[in-house]
Automatic annotation (TrEMBL):
Top-level taxon of the source organism: Bacteria
Organism: Bacillus infantis
Top-level taxonomy: Bacteria, Bacillati, Bacillota, Bacilli, Bacillales
Name of this protein: Uncharacterized protein
């Protein structure tokens, strides 16, 4: 996923492996999520009947987040990853997120009345990431 903007440091403790839910023979799996202070991203897959739209993206009619029980209001975009069936959703951070929080993800799909609901604890990634600062240069991870 380095082509998607993720930096893979030597340690993989910055990504959190998550969970899978099955409803009506369709599964949604949240494979990984990342919160590093400058971005928040979720990698998921949808498998089952009518799981994809005509373009091949997940056939999701509703995708909402809550952070510590407060609705997330902001934009997001999705794209394919280089792994089959996996999609990357990156969320615009208009406000700083806490270092630790409870994330609730609700996902709806066309043709299925029930929503998939995930509740997960999230921790900010450690010092493995560097935040980009305009007009600064970096050498070996140190801004100068």
């Amino acid at each position: 996923m380095a082509t998607m903007g993720f930096i893979r440091p030597d340690k993989r403790d910055f990504l959190q492996k998550l969970i899978k839910l099955l409803k009506r023979r369709t599964s949604i799996t949240i494979h990984e999520l990342l919160h590093d202070g400058s971005r928040f991203a979720v990698v998921l897959s949808v498998k089952g009947k009518n799981a994809k739209d005509k373009r091949g993206f997940p056939n999701l009619s509703d995708f909402s987040l809550s952070i510590n029980d407060s609705p997330y209001i902001g934009g997001y975009g999705g794209t394919y990853t280089n792994e089959k069936y996996k999609y990357l959703y990156e969320f615009d951070l208009e406000e700083n997120l806490p270092d630790e929080f409870k994330l609730k993800v609700e996902v709806g799909m066309d043709g299925i009345g029930d929503k998939w609901a995930f509740e997960l604890p999230v921790k900010k990634a450690g010092k493995s990431y560097y935040q980009v600062v305009p007009h600064k240069t970096a050498s070996n991870g140190r801004l100068g």
